[in-house]
Specification:
By secondary structure, the protein is an alpha/beta fold. About 35% of the residues lie in helices and about 20% in strands. One of its GO terms (molecular function) is helicase activity.
Length: about 800
């Protein structure tokens, strides 16, 4: 990708001269044109989103107007006439930004008092921050649980609030984004109560329609600045497909060398050559594995090099994270294997190369990660190492899908009743809810309030709804969709707490017999106590990793929309999913070879969510030459591949969605394939799939047809999570089936195109957010609340494409 010249401008004349001098003292003579434009909008009181490439100076675009305003506020009698709130999706990014702000504002003396306020902040510092800090850096979780519920203690800060900065706002998608959107509405409501109306300044990676996404997130009109005027060094971008091995997987399928092994080799080679690099990995376990393999290889070359590579992921203790960040900044570490905890904006200057182990799920994330290389304008290298799955294989063989396509629209659905209900309760506890507040929280809120009242969570007195319980309403939900208490991972011999795992992921990651990695050490899970949320582990050194397998069934609760596809049907609506982890595979670390399977006895979990599904008729099956013997395999193969391809069309991760295929489904009475959101009430992904179904299923068909294997492999139709052991699967049948289905697909109408690009229609109330006894349901515990007939699929051949956290 060729280098690009930069375009300079001048700061608006309303920026304080002291701030401009401080910026110049930091070595920045003139702003880029997009920085000056964003500052102008901020000073005009217009909320603005800056959506430009990595290392384009987005931070400075919002910092300059914020610092100038804080400087004005410092002249007030109380020294705090203006405040600003900064929100980051991760603690690491907030800590990094606090360092940057303090360095930049040093010439301004005590006029700018920046402080991080998160779960790691010592209690003795918190009161000082509430009373005296004028630039508070936190995350949405702390805003939801710590700041808003105790707003009287923050009254002087909120009263003077001029700006709310939302960094890396493209990460607020799906259920997490929907929760954050409601947290921001609660913040705006309290600010109005204290007489302030802050301007929102958002920073985003390059995204499709950033102003539309920012408006859905904040509930306010937002101006877009997306013309990137910063210079860029040349970027060499390699698409890397690991070679086939001599090994054979399930059903004799060819097996490629794993992306983990290839990425570890690349990290080793780059470190030996003194190249500063980061390897981004999809999972915490993958980050640990790559780090361990690279350290072992480096020790063979030069023992001193082994200590210059480490892993960085979520779940570490705060002091471990901070030590790694310092080592990376100082150059003590040459190579890092990291999850996206590091992707989000931590400012690492001078990286020469980025290795991406597996497509990160969205083009926005891909460019965000690749942009970490060459941050100082020098040339750089980015390598995408393909995993052995349908989407990665498709992308390395169709580079135009990466380089010639715009990044995705951000999908979020603030009106999801499962998301909205707990936030209405939290808002009512903060200040009694009135009819005037309902417009702020969206059209679904009026329908939910009577349900919350019936559930004895809220009570109406005169003209307002009040919270009735003793416990804190903010504790009804975790905003990252994790649901439930995190499972503590404890070393059995010592009782030492190693870290935590989200409750929803516990069944698949810390089941009995699972391999758990922490700080380069390998542990085996001895037991998982779901009642006490504790997994006991002991140190071990097995030559394998583990992958959980599950089975899933789906029943249709309500069909919202149905479109004829020839004789078939494409549908969207509400479903109930029953999922159970049934076993786990042991796979050899370097080759992925399956060593064995062990049965598990874990309880099933139920989930009410949103799904897209399609049916075919007997006539269509006849035209596709699909007889009853291969029908199950053809449907199953099409379902696996379609789930693998959906992240190309919706901003979801493969693990955010699940699927089921059934030769005769009891609710449709036809052969049916379901793809559903893995979160209560839905996340907007299935709806996105419904609106892009023609392009999505055409890409799915192409991915299967163009794979070189004979009868199916992990690159096209096999899934590592399949609870049925990838049986049955029929590759050619899936291609013929999708061909006939797509022949009946209607031409895309203009309104469908708009629906594809616009906000999802939440279908409020289709899946009730309340249990019969009241309260938003925990994952896996939604009870019948509307007396619907709980119909169970008979003979449901379920692919195990269920996400880890129903």
């Amino acid at each position: 990708m060729p280098p690009r010249e930069g375009r300079h401008a001048v700061w608006p004349d309303r920026i304080r001269s002291e701030v401009i001098a401080a910026v110049q003292a930091a070595g920045i003579g003139h702003p880029w044109a997009h920085q000056a434009r964003a500052a102008e909008h901020a000073l005009d009181g217009e909320s603005v989103v800056v959506a430009t490439g990595t290392a384009s100076g987005k931070s400075l675009a919002y910092l300059v107007p914020v610092l100038s305003t804080l400087l004005d506020g410092a002249e007030a009698p109380n020294g705090r006439g203006a405040t600003a709130l900064y929100l980051a999706p991760t603690k690491a990014l907030a800590a990094d930004q606090c360092r940057s702000v303090k360095e930049l504002s040093q010439p301004l003396g005590h006029s700018v008092r920046a402080a991080v306020y998160d779960g790691d902040t010592p209690f003795e510092e918190r009161e000082w921050i509430r009373q005296y800090a004028n630039y508070v850096l936190t995350n949405p979780d702390m805003l939801h649980r710590g700041v808003l519920p105790s707003h009287p203690r923050w009254s002087s800060f909120l009263k003077a609030l001029k700006y709310v900065v939302i960094d890396e706002c493209h990460t607020y998608r799906g259920v997490f984004g929907s929760h954050v959107a409601q947290v921001l509405r609660r913040l705006r409501r309290l600010c109005a109560r204290y007489g302030s109306s802050p301007v929102f300044l958002l920073a985003s990676a390059t995204a499709a329609e950033p102003a539309v996404a920012a408006r859905r997130l904040t509930g306010l009109p937002v101006v877009e600045v997306s013309d990137d005027a910063s210079p860029r060094g040349e970027l060499v971008f390699a698409l890397w497909e690991p070679p086939l091995t001599e090994l054979h997987g399930e059903k004799g399928a060819p097996v490629r060398r794993t992306a983990t092994a290839e990425a570890a080799d690349l990290l080793t080679d780059l470190t030996v050559q003194g190249v500063r690099s980061v390897t981004f990995v999809r999972s915490r376990r993958g980050a640990e594995l790559i780090s361990v393999i690279a350290q072992e290889r480096l020790a063979e070359v030069d023992r001193s090099l082994a200590g210059r590579v480490a892993a960085y992921r979520g779940g570490y203790l705060p002091e471990e994270r901070r030590a790694l960040e310092r080592a990376l900044h100082s150059g003590e570490l040459l190579g890092l294997a990291a999850t996206n905890a590091l992707e989000l904006g931590v400012d690492i200057a001078g990286l020469d190369a980025v290795v991406i182990a597996g497509y990160p799920g969205t083009r926005a994330s891909l460019w965000q990660q690749a942009g970490r290389a060459g941050r100082s304008g020098q040339g750089a290298l980015a390598v995408l190492v393909a995993r052995d799955d349908p989407l990665d294989t498709f992308l390395v063989h169709h580079p135009e899908a990466l380089f010639d396509q715009p990044v995705e629209s951000t999908v979020l659905d603030p009106d999801n009743p499962y998301v909205l209900a707990p936030h209405l309760c939290a808002a009512a506890e903060e200040l009694p809810l009135t009819d005037d507040d309902l417009e702020l929280f969206g059209p679904t809120s009026a329908e939910l309030l009577p349900q919350l009242e019936a559930a004895k969570l809220l009570r109406r007195r005169t003209k307002a709804w009040h919270w009735t319980r003793r416990e804190r309403a903010a504790d009804l939900t975790g905003i990252r969709g994790e649901g439930g208490r995190p499972v503590q991972v404890v070393e059995a011999g010592t009782g030492r707490l190693l870290g935590t795992v989200d409750a929803g992921a516990a069944h698949t990651t810390v089941h009995e017999g699972a391999v758990h990695l922490h700080q380069g050490r390998t542990y085996l899970v001895r037991s998982l106590d779901l009642e006490d949320s504790v997994a006991l582990v002991e140190q071990a050194d097995p030559p394998y990793t583990t992958v959980a397998r599950d089975t899933t069934s789906v029943s249709v609760l309500e069909t919202d929309t149905e479109i004829p596809w020839g004789e078939g049907r494409l549908c969207f609506g509400s479903v109930e999913v029953t999922n159970q982890v049934v076993s786990f595979l042991r796979r050899r670390v370097m080759t992925g070879e399956v060593l064995g399977e062990t049965k598990l006895d874990l309880p099933p979990r139920t989930l009410r969510t949103r799904a897209v599904w399609w049916t075919v008729t007997e006539d269509q099956l006849d035209r596709a030459r699909i007889n009853p013997e291969i029908l199950g395999g053809a449907l199953h193969a099409a379902e696996h591949a379609s789930i693998g391809m959906l992240p190309l069309f919706a901003t979801c991760d493969r693990w955010d969605i699940g699927g089921v295929s059934v030769p005769l489904h009891p609710d449709t009475l036809l052969p049916t394939v379901f793809v559903y959101d893995g979160h209560p009430g839905g996340a907007g992904f299935a709806e996105r799939a419904f609106h892009t179904a023609r392009a999505w299923l055409a890409a799915t068909r192409q991915a299967i047809a163009s794979c070189e294997c004979e009868a199916g492999c992990p690159s096209c139709i096999q899934s590592p999570k399949c609870g049925n052991g990838n049986d049955p699967l029929h590759k050619r049948g899936a291609v013929r089936l999708l061909t006939v289905l797509l022949e009946g697909a209607p031409e895309e109408k203009p309104e469908e195109k708009e629906a594809e690009e616009g906000a999802p229609n939440p279908g409020a109330g289709k899946a009730t957010p309340l249990q019969a006894e009241g309260g938003p349901p925990p994952p896996g515990g939604a009870e019948e609340a509307e007396g619907r007939d709980r119909r169970r699929p008979r003979d449901a051949r379920a692919s195990s494409q269920a996400p880890p956290s129903p």
